[in-house]
Amino acid sequence: MSDLKRLFEPIRVGELDLPNRIVMAPLTRSRSDEEGRVPTYAADYYSQRADAGLVITEATNISPGAVGYALTPGIWSDAQVEAWKSVVEAVHDREGRFVLQLWHTGRISHPDLHGGELPGAPSAVKPEGQAFTADGMKDMVTPRAFDTAEIPAILEDYRRAAVNAKEAGFDAVEIHSANNYLLEQFVRDSTNQREDEYGGSLENRLRFPLEVAAAVVEVWGAGRVGIRISPGTTMPGETPIDSEATITYGRYLEHLSSLGLAYTHVMEGLIRESRDWPDEVDGAELRRRAPGAYMANNELDPEAAAELLENREADLVSFGRAYIANPDLVSRIATGAPLAEAPQEYWYGGDATGYSDWPRASEGAAAR
User: Fold this and answer.
1) 39, 236, 306, 307: most buried by Cβ count inside 10 Å?
2) pTM of full prediction above 0.70
3) From CA 139, how far away is CA 361, in angstroms rounded?
């Protein structure tokens, strides 16, 4: 059995000193209002979890065109920035380190979320599955392909969102280049069928994601920028894995390393299915190439997480679903207290119930 003490060792990541190696992963909860403002009780939710080494926000839209799910937060407007400020302050009051994740969903969206207009993507390739809209789940559609002339404006959306995150008081930002959303849609040859300078060759497919990373680093400095990737997953959208995934992501990580990013957050294996890498992906090779601290993710339990640290297969580990019902996850792991499980009805949408009202182990029952 692995020594759980490894989870509680301090570590310096970029410019951030972390008291432990446990990270709260981004968790979409769909509690924001129609203007993309986080609710006031988000301050309770995030501050309750502030003893994690890092707390990463739910994925946060960089622009109106980035939205792919109803009731998700944004960081493009002054009102959204103001809403985030009180949340950041609450986390800092508990001496937490708070990271905002920058998000554009690309083709994983629906016209209802864009005033009836088609969502934009690198190419007009239809994703499978449904999108969460204000009127419930609806089948996704074939997106429109961005004109080459539109892409600089999207880059500027990322830059402005990074500036706004700094204005809101966050300690760092994470670039969401995973889960088959916009940046990964540019990377993969299955979703990027462009014939301009942003498509075709591997270097062209990497061009826009690398431009985004460089722009965010220009705002924040590399020591306060991380990136999330998911080379082996097909969801959402039933998106085929890149035909030369190890080469593709190896080159991507090589370029990112030249920027000196603080960490690389990796969805290992197949999301919600297996931590085993598919045949197309050499996970060990990508781990060696990853810039900064290596953060592993994909439904880890504490023992498995500690084993990764012990085997030097990760520097940090992020926990997702376990954080929904366990605001005191760090102390529960430390003391061996049982972990609560949140019914799926509380995962997305609703109010403070099932969100910021979960008791700590010391406060009574560990599960509803």
Assistant:
1) 306
2) yes
3) 40
